[in-house]
Amino acid sequence: MMTPGPAAARRRAQADTSMDNVIDFINLNRERYLEELKALLAIPSISALPEHAADVRRCAEWCAAEMRRVGLDHVKLIDTPGHPIVYGDWLAADGAPTILFYGHYDVQPVDPLELWASPPFEATVRDGELYARGAADDKGQVFMHLKAIEAHLRRNNRLPVNIKVFLEGEEEVGSVHLDDFVRAHRSDLAADVVVISDSAMFDRGVPSICYGLRGLVYCQINLRGSRTDLHSGSFGGAVANPAFVLAQMIAQMKDRRGRVKVPGFYADVRPLEAREREAWAALPFNEKKFRKDFGIPRLAGEAGYTTLERLWARPTLEVNGLLSGFTGEGAKTVLPGVAMAKISMRLVPDQDPDKIADLFEAYCRKIAPKTVELTVTRMHGGRPWMTSHDHPYMQAAARAIERSFGRRPVFTREGGSIPVVSTFQEALGVPAVLFGVGLPDENAHAPNEKLDLGNFYTGILAAACLYEEIAHSPAAA
Ligand code: BES
Ligand code: MN
Ligand code: MN
């Protein structure tokens, strides 16, 4: 091996000193970070609910103000046909690589509110966890990066890399306006690597880097059997019941072995590689604990695949919601006039959301009897994403995680979706590094969402190290 010359050694030593300063700063400021994050979490930026549109905007403005405070330049809100994008950058690291950091400041709705142990928008610490909507998904994780940037700028007056911070307010509603924006602003967003923290660690104490996400197609089915609800005695038996028809249709969507029955659904599915199956089988996944943690009597899924394979590498179809007829207390003899189902499909490489939506709609038309009127509405979608994990920037991230968490990360894929990731890959032609510090039991999208505070603080260190590792990566030369 070649020994580095004196100039390189000096640069490295300087870098080590500046990193020590940054680490000191982060460790000294933990209490302030927590208070600031609580302020961000107090804004109910629920993108799905029109009555919260003003809160979403207020949150974008809060993020912009914070980005200015930490020292980013050119900070601005960018209006879209939906909720605003927040942009800011720091581009004075001459010759160093450029990171495009992406995250979202919008959150999911909070219902059912009565299941929250503390109010969702009053962040509360219990047992080392911070409970609030958005704590893990994704405000807390976005905030880690803002604090890592702040630490570098406060202590060293510079960052080791150039960075463009790009936050959106519509991720939880499918990033519907983002693809067009990214494609139209390719050169403004140009970077060497995309960095995202919007996923979970493999397990408590097991940090991970995610190299694949599933895609998504989301549809709504409406059935109408009569103009209004009818007396079930006077009409039942002679008029189709949309609730019953809907149940029969749903029952035809998957077979007993857990395979989706929509014709052509699997045509473009990339098979799992033997190497991947072996690597996942070696991960510390405890199926029994998984069942216990979530109160699952027995696992279900596509025959021939392990749980991790079913979650990460196989497509699926789920009913997200069902509505029909009388659901109040007591009994009401009624023949429902309508029935509705929300159905989504998670996709894997190389399935195409538009093509799958076409196949799904055609299948619904085929299995719907003439006794009901069928409407299929397409909501949002997103393409699946996968990248190789031997890219030097992935390795840089692995070193940053090892330096901060004290353990090398495992490489995982995830079942969830972040629609814009594949758009970044395609439009900007650069790799994405997904390093998240959430946990499998973080309750994202559910009551009592939480972020482990230890992971939050260590995540700030990891982000700060990541910038430095990316700057010194062989890919940066
Ligand atoms: N952060 C999640 C995505 C995610 C979930 C990544 C689990 C890794 C593991 C993101 O905020 C999310 O919830 N995405 C939605 C996308 C949809 C609304 C288009 C999802 O996956 O349902
Ligand atoms: Mn998220
Ligand atoms: Mn989410």
3D architecture notes:
This protein is α+β, with helices and mostly antiparallel strands and 477 residues long. It has 15 helices and 18 strands. It has helices at residues 6-28, 30-41, 53-70, 139-156, 178-184, 186-189, 232-235, 242-251, 274-281, 287-294, 307-312, 353-367, 392-405, 420-428, 453-471, and strands at 73-78, 85-90, 98-104, 124-126, 129-131, 162-168, 193-196, 208-213, 215-224, 230-231, 316-324, 334-335, 338-347, 373-382, 385-386, 410-413, 432-435, 450-452. The longest helix has 23 residues, at 6-28. The protein starts with 5 loop residues before the first helix and ends in a 6-residue tail after the last helix. The model has no long low-confidence stretch (mean pLDDT 96).
Question: How would you sum up this structure in a few lines?
Answer:
The protein has 477 residues and is an alpha+beta fold. It is built from 15 helices and 18 strands.
Number of strands: 18
Our Rg estimate from Cα atoms comes to 24 Å
What share of the residues does DSSP label as strand, in percent?
A: 15-25%
- In terms of quaternary structure, the protein is single chain
Spans of 5+ residues with little confidence (pLDDT < 50)? none
Name the average pLDDT.
96
* Distance linking N and C termini: 18 Å
Summing up helix and strand content along with how strands pair, one would put the structural category as: alpha+beta
Bound molecules: ligand BES, manganese (II) ion
Largest sheet: 9 strands, mixed
- Helical stretch count? 15
